[in-house]
Amino acid sequence: MHFKVELPDWVLEESAKLPEVMPTLESQMEAVIRFSKLNYEKDTGGPFAAGIFEKETGKRVVIGVNRVVPGNNSTAHAEIVTIAMAQAMLKTFDLGGPEMPNYRLVVNARPCAMCFGSIPWSGVRSLAFAACGEEVEKITGFDEGPIHPQWQQELRNRDIEVIEHVMAEQAYEVFREFANSGSPIYNGRGGDS
Ligand SMILES: [Zn+2]
């Protein structure tokens, strides 16, 4: 038995057009937000994308997208897919291992409860995100789950940098387009059901 998560072909095609080194956080986020839009437009998953980059140089490891619905996998959020892809490509379960550069996870929206939990396990040393969770829930109806109230501090206590609201307005614009598109909203069970 096994399960696998695959990135759609367009991700590889679009990634090949990007420079290998994307030195500014804005250039990284711009690509991630664009991939989040393409993912729902091409019907290959929800409007979420994430990238792993070397923190100091901006060298791109991988940009991944949400694959929940096409993969029949509730855990295939963009962050989980992207972390797993990077670890498979770099052949390590720990992106914070010895002799490795520091890695940054760049996401178009605040991690949900599950993805927040995956960050300390992943070994990344930095998280940057665009849209805040409450606003995404308001626009789209996605339930982001019970994230710890001091979640940013919990990451910082573990030596993981947190950079919030990078190009948030551009990210909200994609969520608004998604909400108006009539695409399905999938969710986990709410707390009262
Ligand atoms: Zn998530």
TrEMBL record:
Q: Which residues form the CMP/dCMP-type deaminase domain?
A: 23-155
Q: Which InterPro entries match?
A: APOBEC/CMP_deaminase_Zn-bd (IPR016192), CMP_dCMP_dom (IPR002125), Cytidine_deaminase-like (IPR016193)
What Pfam family is a match for this entry?
dCMP_cyt_deam_1
Q: What is this protein called?
A: Guanine deaminase
> From the UniProt record, which GO molecular function terms apply?
guanine deaminase activity; zinc ion binding
Entry keyword set: Hydrolase, Metal-binding, Zinc
Q: Which domain of life is it from?
A: Bacteria
Q: Which EC numbers does the record give? A: 3.5.4.3
